[in-house]
Design a protein that fits this description.
The protein has 4 helices and 7 strands, in the order E-E-H-H-H-E-E-H-E-E-E. Helices cover 26% and strands 29% of the residues. The protein is α+β, with helices and mostly antiparallel strands. It has helices spanning 24-31, 35-45, 53-56, 90-96, and strands spanning 7-12, 17-22, 62-68, 80-87, 99-100, 107-108, 110-112. The longest helix is centred in the middle third of the chain and has 11 residues, at 35-45. The chain is globular and about 40 Å long.
């Protein structure tokens, strides 16, 4: 059996915050490693509480997330959004900022990942 992991990014901008879920394909595209490659070393050490350096290096960087949103998401829980596409390409982020994506209810926002205080 192949282990499957996900990485949850807590992101915030001037309008709101969200939890975005990244799976292997998107992690590999932007981070250069899959979730398994990032998280397996922690599992082997037996300490899943440490944050991998690769993820710590994302703090204060700007990313564009295109997410999948379901209207039926339960409002009683903190919603998580599946990341369909993620890029750190600054040019694409600037062009997409505050633009409409796929319909009238989706917007594209430039997100900066910051260290939690």
């Amino acid at each position: 059996m192949t282990p499957r992991y996900r990485i949850k990014f807590g992101v915030i901008d001037d309008s709101d915050c969200a939890c975005n879920v990244v799976f292997d394909k998107e992690a590999k595209q932007v981070l250069g490693k899959s979730c398994v490659e990032i998280l397996d070393p922690l599992l082997l050490k037996g300490n899943l509480l440490d944050t991998p350096t690769l993820l710590l290096n994302l703090i204060d960087k700007i990313f564009l997330f295109i997410v999948e949103v379901h209207i039926y998401d339960n409002p009683h829980f903190s919603p998580s959004y599946k990341v369909k596409k993620m890029t750190d390409n600054v040019r694409l982020s600037s062009e997409s900022e505050d633009s409409k994506v796929e319909g009238n209810t989706s917007t594209c926002k430039k997100i900066k990942i910051e260290k939690e205080t």
